[in-house]
């Protein structure tokens, strides 16, 4: 099976259908060069100060810079990209809603070997989710051209339908090569890994992932984005960060107050919520992220 390739003219339905079939898809040339370059400029000082990884999985020649919503206003535009949010809504339709799970700029340095092939959903304590039940919709935005030589992400298309705990080698994968400004989307159940960087340049990819809102986020958004910054952000983005109920009775504050009301200091305690109000307080109601 090959990696499906689409263009910015394709719809969220098209991309979600490709993910259902192959577990992955590349959408080429989505980002304008100006926005991509602005993200790189804003994150450059943070990337320079980020230490390399502590082990072979994280990459001993790889820098993983997080906290992007707080550190890069331009990155916020990509976090809330309507095409990606539309795809995430469809991929994660089994859950009441979804949230931002992780933000990273991954800079793979020259000489970095290939990353072990894995599933991103193993972050949830290796829980064996049922085949076909997706809990993550992931993206890697190409901040430079992704080539086989510089470590383009390697995938096993169709492996989202395989059982858990399998072992794959790099030879079992194919590279998601793509021009700068493109985006690779893949599910949390897809086996994949970063490729080896055999070039003389650093390969930069913007890794933004989304998860079912009843799961704990990999990156703690409430500390990565300090409250004084969070209070300046649009409400739709705040709900995507997690300032919303994740499902019935998940994530409220004290007397069942909405977390966004608490953050912004508005309103008072809400009346107790009854079972009849389930749809209204879940991600299926007004608190669900846009897109």
Q: How many domains comprise the coordinates?
A: 2
Number of strands: 10
Alpha-carbon distance between the two ends:
29 Å
Which stretches of 5+ consecutive residues score pLDDT under 50? 270-291
- CATH superfamily of the largest domain, by name, is q2cbj1_9rhob like domain
Proportion of residues in β-strands: 15-25%
Our Rg estimate from Cα atoms comes to 19 Å
Return the CATH topology of the largest domain: Jelly Rolls
Give the SSE string.
EHEHEHHHEEEEEEEHHHHH
Describe what you observe in this structure:
This protein is of the alpha+beta class. The protein has two domains: 5-212, q2cbj1_9rhob like domain (Jelly Rolls); 227-281, no CATH class. It has ten helices and ten strands. The protein has helices at 12-22, 33-49, 68-71, 73-79, 82-91, 221-224, 227-230, 235-241, 259-264, 278-281, and strands at residues 5-7, 24-28, 62-65, 98-108, 136-142, 154-155, 174-175, 183-187, 192-193, 203-212. The strands form two sheets. The chain has a seven-stranded mixed beta sheet. Helix 1 (12-22) links the parallel strand 1 (5-7) and strand 2. The radius of gyration is 19 Å and the shape is globular. Residues 270-291 have low confidence and may be disordered.
Which structural traits does this protein have?
single chain, 2 domains, 25% helix, Jelly Rolls, 18% strand, 291 residues, alpha+beta, 3-stranded antiparallel β-sheet, 7-stranded mixed β-sheet
């Amino acid at each position: 099976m090959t990696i499906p390739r689409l263009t910015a003219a394709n719809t969220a339905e098209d991309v979600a259908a490709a993910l259902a079939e192959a577990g992955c898809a590349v959408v080429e040339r989505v980002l304008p060069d100006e926005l991509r370059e602005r993200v790189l400029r804003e994150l450059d000082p943070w990337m320079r100060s980020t230490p390399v990884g502590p082990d072979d999985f994280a990459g001993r020649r790889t820098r993983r810079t997080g906290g992007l919503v707080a550190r890069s206003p331009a990155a916020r535009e990509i976090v809330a990209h309507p095409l990606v949010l539309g795809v995430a809504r469809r991929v994660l339709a089994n859950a009441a809603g979804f949230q931002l799970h992780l933000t990273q700029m991954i800079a793979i340095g020259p000489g970095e070997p290939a990353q072990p092939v894995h599933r991103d959903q193993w972050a949830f304590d290796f829980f064996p989710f049922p085949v076909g039940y997706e809990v993550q919709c992931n993206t890697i935005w190409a901040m430079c051209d992704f080539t086989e030589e510089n470590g383009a992400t390697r995938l096993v298309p169709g492996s989202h339908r395989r059982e858990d705990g399998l072992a794959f080698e790099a030879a079992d994968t194919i590279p998601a090569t793509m021009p700068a400004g493109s985006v690779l989307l893949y599910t949390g159940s897809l086996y994949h890994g970063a490729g080896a960087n055999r070039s003389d340049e650093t390969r930069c990819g913007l890794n933004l992932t989304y998860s079912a809102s009843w799961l704990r986020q990999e990156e703690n958004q409430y500390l990565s984005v300090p409250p004084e910054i969070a209070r300046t952000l649009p409400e739709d983005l705040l709900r995507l960060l997690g300032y919303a109920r994740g499902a019935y009775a998940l994530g409220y504050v004290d007397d069942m107050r909405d977390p966004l009301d608490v953050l912004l200091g508005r309103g008072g305690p809400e009346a107790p919520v009854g079972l009849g109000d389930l749809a209204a307080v879940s991600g299926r109601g007004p608190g669900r992220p846009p897109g």
